[in-house]
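Can you give me the bound-state structure? Components:
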Amino acid sequence: MGTAKPFLRSPCAIANSLDIVGDKWSLLVVRDLLHGKRTYGELAKSPERIPTNILAERLKRLAAAGIIASTPYQEHPLRHQYTLTRKGAELGSVLLAFVRWGKDHIPGTVALSQSPATSRIPPKKNRSRARRAE
Amino acid sequence: MGTAKPFLRSPCAIANSLDIVGDKWSLLVVRDLLHGKRTYGELAKSPERIPTNILAERLKRLAAAGIIASTPYQEHPLRHQYTLTRKGAELGSVLLAFVRWGKDHIPGTVALSQSPATSRIPPKKNRSRARRAE
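Here's the bound-state model for the whole set.
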């Protein structure tokens, strides 16, 4: 293609994924967004109590990597809400693999939500219909 | 069970998995062991060129977490070979999810081995036979 991307460490798909989300917090933010959290305040209140400076930095990094999108929902003071892009939502399969591995091998751990894929809260008016369709 | 384990951050299976392998290097060591690498020297030669101090520290941490086992294969000087435990080998599903996500969303990335499960390098004397069999 003539536009070879200079990889940070190697062209390995795993290594490059880890360059984006290979830390203790990024995938927890993705988990929370998959679970329907939207605001900085909601994300900061997760049980792991992510330090707010780390949360702010991770949100910037995840947005720069195209994993989340932020849109203003309030102007004075300015507040954003965060949603996963398709790229970000598809990290759900990585999270699911971690949930299974953790539950199998780390005694006492649980899936905070039984199924990230089905835990999105649909808009209220569709909720009963969505349930009926299942 | 009466022996509740105090979790570092929360009982979330994802958070606790990330407390063990949530960094840029640990899963690359697991990848390499799945691919048949066994010695410190082989692991150090991976394309990402893990710094040797980090490799030594990660091997200790992964052994302490029950993900790898080390056995001496030479006495003077003492050298160890490393293998994945069942707990470690089952991180293969996490790696596979990362490979798929990376290939789908990070242009130009590849699976370093098409199939971790079949990529173990056979002993030299069998290598040509193994190639012919493919």
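A couple of observations. The radius of gyration of chain A is 17 Å. The domain at 16-105 of chain A is CATH 1.10.10.10 (Arc Repressor Mutant, subunit A).
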